[in-house]
Amino acid sequence: MSTPAASPSRRRRRGPELEAALLDTAWDELIEAGYAKLTMESVAQRARTGVAVLYRRWPNKDELTLAALEHYRLTHPVGLPDTGSLRGDLLDALTGMGTARAGYFAIATAAAFSGLLASTGLTTTQVRDRILGPQRPERVRTLYQRAHDRGEIDLQRIPAAVLALPFDLVRHDLLMDLEALSADRIQSVVDEIFLPLARHHSTGTDSPEPS
Questions:
Q1: Given 8, 39, 118, 128, which is the most exposed site by the fewest CB atoms within 10 A?
Q2: Dist. CA 187–CA 190, nearest whole Å
Q3: Any alpha helices (H) in the chain, and if so which ranges?
Q4: How far, in Å, CA of 86 to CA of 136, rounded?
Q5: What mean pLDDT is reported for the chain?
Q6: For 19, left (φ over 0), alpha (ψ -120 to 50), or beta?
Q7: Would you tell me how many other CB atoms lie within 10 Å of the CB of residue 77?
Q8: 3-state class (DSSP) for residue 189
């Protein structure tokens, strides 16, 4: 009588793969339970692993929460459009940014106001920087460089603060309203605030953009 073949054991995750899975689990727990109710034990139970596995990587739930927020942000990047025009690129980029980041900002802000700011030992600025992440001017620069190459703007004459302005305004609205920006608000940022400033610095005038 032949012996039935043993069912294959589930492959054990290790290293970066295991850490990514634990951070995904912590993010899910953060969404469903919230920061106040999240514990190292609840995340371990959800991940079907021992709590010691978490403590070997993060000393407490504060560091686990910050790591989960960083992991989600880095694994869900906002796309960079290429529509053929600066206006089109900005409208699409800012719309995508608002849609992709609205939920993230809501979860991160809820965690911050539920005790994360008070218990990490970090300053408000340090927590903010870990949640928002470093600015990536090279991605925005790519969008503007295309417009420069098409002759729409002169990058040599536009101050860096003006180039950052539309993205800074969207971040501000996301933090204040915790919801995606309306199409009207994004159009206002692009057409009424940024483009007139960009044209002014590029050409010294605020004449309408050529059709």
A1: 8
A2: 5
A3: 15-33, 40-47, 51-55, 61-75, 86-111, 117-119, 124-132, 137-149, 160-177, 183-188, 195-203
A4: 18
A5: 86
A6: alpha
A7: 10
A8: helix
Give the integer Cα–Cα distance in Å for 31 and 33: 6
CA distances from 28 to 113, 162, 184 (A): 19, 37, 32
Backbone angles phi, psi at 149, to 5 degrees: -65, -30
Amino acid, single-letter form, for residue 130? R
Q: pTM here?
A: 0.75
Give the Cα separation of 191 and 194 in Å (integer): 6
Is-contact 193 165, C-beta < 8 A?
yes
Tens digits of residue pLDDT in 97-118: 999 889 898 898 888 888 887 7
